[in-house]
Amino acid sequence: MGEHPSPGPAVAACAEAERIEELEPEAEEPLPAAPEDFDPGNTGYISTGTFRSLLESHSSKLDPHKREVLLALADSHADGQICYQDFVNLMSNKRSNSFRQAILQGNRRLSSKALLEEKGLSLSQRLIRHVAYETLPREIDRKWYYDSYTCCPPPWFMLTVTLLEVAFFLYNGVSLGQFVLQVTHPRYLKNSLVYHPQLRAQAWRYLTYIFMHAGIEHLGLNVVLQLLVGVPLEMVHGATRIGLVYVAGVVAGSLAVSVADMTAPVVGSSGGVYALVSAHLANIVMNWSGMKCQFKLLRMAVALICMSMEFGRAVWLRFHPSAYPPCPHPSFVAHLGGVAVGITLGVVVLRNYEQRLQDQSLWWIFVAMYTVFVLFAIFWNIFAYTLLDLKLPPPP
């Protein structure tokens, strides 16, 4: 082999797998492999025969579903070779697009026994399986999630946001002495969390308005949707991704109001909620045959009816005679901003379970579109109000 040859791709991949094992001692142990035995030419590939021998000798160390995935990977390569890096990625819980395509090509082994057919599961296992079928369209992803999920960390983002919204609502209800249609109270808009067009220079208001709701009828539906849709999505995709979609919807909602309904204030978390729900519904429609959740047509209809009722309530309230003229009631445009984020950024996030978003061209296209909109809205807020000589309601 020479005195000191430079390490080939297989050696580097093996070293990376060993480094990951050292950093995560409690994680599942990768299959041991000696690159000089399996890839003597340092080509970066190993034969499918060698690969199957590895599986047979170390199958007791693998989750049964992960073994199925590996067999599907072997079946997908008609040329008799498997990329060693794909193998290491699998054992390190890192899956590339090429790996996903290989698995889909060898998917016939995975259809031998669906996760839904497994018996004797505990309550927590049935809950995890239920969440997998609610959110993921591919059996390979459902099995992967079922084996990998540890509830650590729990879905803290959606739970924390929901608890804060309820806490702020109760505090305002006690201080104002009003829980239904709080927005009609003369002191409601004086709260420093509400977005108000006269105070749009206070940048925190573009985000903190989610903690103020028009009334219990407004808060109730948002909380229900956040818990029924947001929590399962966070369990599958993680707090970072779901939090990103939620916050992007919130900011897009307030900015959309500042551009399209310039004289109105904004309250409520509907921008973030509608971003998550619309992304989830769009993902179901785009993967209709693969989604195996029960009564999906009926449940989609119920979700759309609830969203329509909430949107109708917001439109009615916006044009209802204001309790504090000349300032109108809060705008409904934030709902539309959330939907726009959900069917763009949100869909890309939900369609790429365990995939690197930065590898998706659509992700960068929608990020660029969102960035352009945010920059446009910022310049609009700086210059348009003055150029249009718009008469704004007085500050609260």
UniProtKB/TrEMBL annotation:
Assigned keywords, A-Z: Hydrolase, Membrane, Protease, Repeat, Serine protease, Transmembrane, Transmembrane helix
SUPFAM superfamilies named in the record: EF-hand, Rhomboid-like
Biological process per Gene Ontology, one example term: proteolysis
InterPro entries named in the record: EF-hand-dom_pair, Peptidase_S54_rhomboid_dom, Peptidase_S54_rhomboid_met, Rhomboid-like_sf, Rhomboid_IM_Serine_Proteases
Chief location: membrane
Domain of life: Eukaryota
Subcellular location per the Swiss-Prot or TrEMBL entry: Membrane
EC number(s) reported in the record: 3.4.21.105
Region (Disordered), start-end ranges: 21-42
Active-site annotation: S270, H335
Gene3D superfamilies in the record: EF-hand, Rhomboid-like
Occurrences of domain Peptidase S54 rhomboid (ranges): 201-351
Transmembrane segments: 242-260, 266-285, 297-319, 331-350, 362-388
One term under GO cellular component: membrane
GO molecular function: serine-type endopeptidase activity
Topology class, membrane: Multi-pass membrane protein
Catalysed conversion reaction: Cleaves type-1 transmembrane domains using a catalytic dyad composed of serine and histidine that are contributed by different transmembrane domains
Top EC category: hydrolase
Family affiliation: Belongs to the peptidase S54 family.
Listed PANTHER family: RHOMBOID-RELATED PROTEIN, RHOMBOID-RELATED PROTEIN 3
Reported function: May be involved in regulated intramembrane proteolysis and the subsequent release of functional polypeptides from their membrane anchors.
Record-given protein name: Rhomboid-related protein 3
Species per Swiss-Prot/TrEMBL record: Daubentonia madagascariensis (Aye-aye)
